[in-house]
């Protein structure tokens, strides 16, 4: 994570990050959705002694409750229906490196018990196996929820939290980072120009709009807006392009969406899902409940949208 030239709060986070990287203790990163918690986790890994080993990211909200044990710890052939071969789990994939638990407050409570035991003993077994395997991983976890509130709500076991919360880090939202939106917007555009051999620029009034907007979706919203505006602009990214990039095709006004006749169903669904998520300030569980889908389904759709955005930006 390059904090050079950014706001004082990010300079402070950069210093904390370097201290965390020098240790090998568990790190708990808290921040709103879209603030870049995984970027911070990867930066810690890449500047630590484990940098040459794997970094494995696990979205705890997307793990199937019935298969959580097998996904984390692996399984032996025949240990359950569908286990046609021995399979490694996330702990084995991350051996020697870093295991990043994103949205850790969404981990099923019974799974937290098993996970805590592994953290305390340093060993685990595959499902259906008897061999003890060593868990040589550093755990970094993240959540967009206040962990103490999650304990009070019964989402997170207190003993599990105490084991994870050795080094706490908070990633501030973009609205608390004065001047960073413009710096980051230029960085995103510079990257797109470099990757695509272009020289597109920001129109002055678009820079003013970026500076004035509070970016409730944080860095993720800003990055996606710049990427989509880049695709739509011929030479200069202007405010009308920004409005389209932020989803004018399905613009949200006072809790409702307006779609033009003829919009493809897939695009309308995407805009509806993203608008609902933004409406709930990035709370994926609440957005899933509003949409009437499972949390795992929502994560799958957001992952797909993220891949589509990346592919389009690199086209």
UniProtKB/TrEMBL annotation:
- Annotated coiled-coil positions are none
Q: Report the superkingdom from the record.
A: Bacteria
Q: Pfam families in the record, alphabetically? A: AAA_lid_14, HTH_8, Sigma54_activat
Output the SMART domains linked to this UniProt entry: AAA (SM00382)
Domain Sigma-54 factor interaction positions = 3-231
Q: Which PANTHER family match?
A: TRANSCRIPTIONAL REGULATORY PROTEIN
Query: What name is this protein filed under?
Result: Sigma-54 dependent transcriptional regulator
Q: Give the organism's phylogenetic lineage.
A: Bacteria, Pseudomonadati, Pseudomonadota, Betaproteobacteria, Burkholderiales
């Amino acid at each position: 994570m390059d904090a050079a030239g950014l706001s004082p709060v990010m300079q402070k986070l950069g210093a904390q990050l370097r201290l965390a990287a020098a240790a090998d203790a568990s790190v708990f990163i808290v921040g709103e959705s879209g603030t870049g918690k995984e970027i911070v986790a990867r930066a810690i890994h890449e500047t630590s002694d484990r940098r040459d080993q794997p970094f494995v990211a696990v979205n705890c909200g997307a793990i199937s409750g019935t298969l959580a044990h097998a996904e984390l710890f692996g399984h032996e052939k025949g240990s359950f229906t569908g286990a046609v071969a021995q399979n490694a789990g996330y702990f084995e994939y991350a051996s020697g490196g870093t295991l990043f638990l994103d949205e850790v407050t969404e981990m099923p409570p019974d799974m937290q018990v098993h996970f805590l035991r592994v953290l305390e003993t340093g060993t685990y077994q595959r499902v259906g196996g008897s061999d003890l395997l060593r868990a040589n991983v550093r755990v970094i976890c993240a959540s967009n929820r206040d962990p103490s509130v999650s304990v009070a709500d019964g989402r997170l076991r207190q003993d599990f939290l105490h084991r994870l919360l050795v080094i706490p880090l908070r990633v501030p939202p973009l609205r608390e980072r004065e001047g960073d939106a413009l710096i980051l917007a230029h960085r995103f555009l510079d990257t797109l120009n470099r990757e695509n051999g272009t020289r597109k620029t920001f129109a002055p009034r678009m820079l003013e709009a970026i500076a004035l907007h509070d970016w409730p979706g944080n860095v993720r919203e800003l990055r996606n807006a710049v990427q989509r505006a880049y695709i739509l602009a011929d030479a200069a990214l202007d405010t009308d392009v920004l409005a389209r990039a932020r989803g004018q095709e399905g613009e949200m006004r006072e809790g409702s969406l307006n779609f033009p006749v003829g919009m493809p169903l897939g695009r309308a669904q995407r805009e509806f899902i993203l608008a609902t998520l933004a409406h709930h300030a990035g709370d994926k569980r609440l957005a899933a409940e509003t949409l009437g889908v499972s949390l795992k389904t929502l994560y799958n759709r957001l992952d797909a949208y993220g891949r589509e955005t990346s592919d389009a930006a690199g086209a």
